[in-house]
Amino acid sequence: MNNNPIGVFDSGIGGLSVLKQFVRFLPFESYIYLGDTARVPYGNRSPEIVKLYARQSTEFLLEKNVKLIVIACNTVSAVALDEVRKIAGDIPVIDMISPAASAALRATVNKRIGVIGTRATVASRAYEKQILEFSNVDNSPEVFTKACPLLVPFVEEGMAQHPAVKLVTEEYLQELIEKDIDTLVMGCTHYPLLVPMIREIMPNISLIDTGEHASVTALRLLAERGDLVDERNSFMEKPKVQFYITDLPALFYENAAAFLGFEIDKPNIIQLDK
Question: Which of these is catalytic: 188, 208, 222, 241?
Fold first, then answer.
């Protein structure tokens, strides 16, 4: 048993969709959430800058004595996973890509998988490489990717269901529709808020939520290590989460509630680039 918190970090508030899944599957755990809201988005940054930001976030969480680090950001998972693992040392690290890639392989029937994400995630080809690495060499799927850089700003502005966003999303997804994919990996933690819209555009698709599959992976890992909290001694009226952010955006509380499904306490404002 290990009562230390689980550390979750993201470039902004998108990682709250991952935290929501962790609270769903591991409700008795305590959490520290770090959102680098002053420097979001990471998706258009250079790999060197993403690695720097990832190091700073990881070091912050390690100072909080976390028992597990969750990279709740596909861009960091794609570009800086090795960097985070090197700094974390013996503390296990859960990324967004490996669990989702495995889930996509299980879900696809016609072996045609689509991946949407930020420019950095798509340019890294991390999903393609991971899916092909996990797949049977004699029956490898085709993987089609599409960068969707406008979707994160729309979600951050609380416009996830705006008609203009639907037009942009349709434009992005049209290329994947023409590829006849049957499975779509939402390779950005902001995208779960767009699920109703994506299902309207692609009603027969299997959608892969990276946070959902990462949380199941974490549950299995902590159980194997004997690091889950003792549920018999745990009772909480609401999830136990400490929030840390690097800036307080105008719509932070509204967006946080939309991602999590519950209102959050006042976050701590910190600096990572000291």
Answer: 188
Q: Based on the fold, state whether residues 167 and 216 are members of the same structural domain.
A: no
pLDDT in tens, 6-21: 999 999 888 999 999 9
- Tally of domains within the chain: 2
**Do 105 and 192 sit in the same domain of this protein?**
yes
The rounded distance, in Å, linking the Cα atoms of 113 and 73 is 20
Q: Would you say 132 and 143 are in contact if contact means Cβ atoms under 8 Å apart?
A: yes
Q: Is the pTM of this model over 0.85?
A: yes
Inside any domain, residue 274 = no
pLDDT at 231 over 90: no
Q: Distance between terminal CA atoms of the chain?
A: 34
| Catalytic residue flag (residue 188) | yes
Of 32, 40, 50, 73, the catalytic one is 73
Residue type, 16: L
Residue 73 bears catalytic tag:
yes
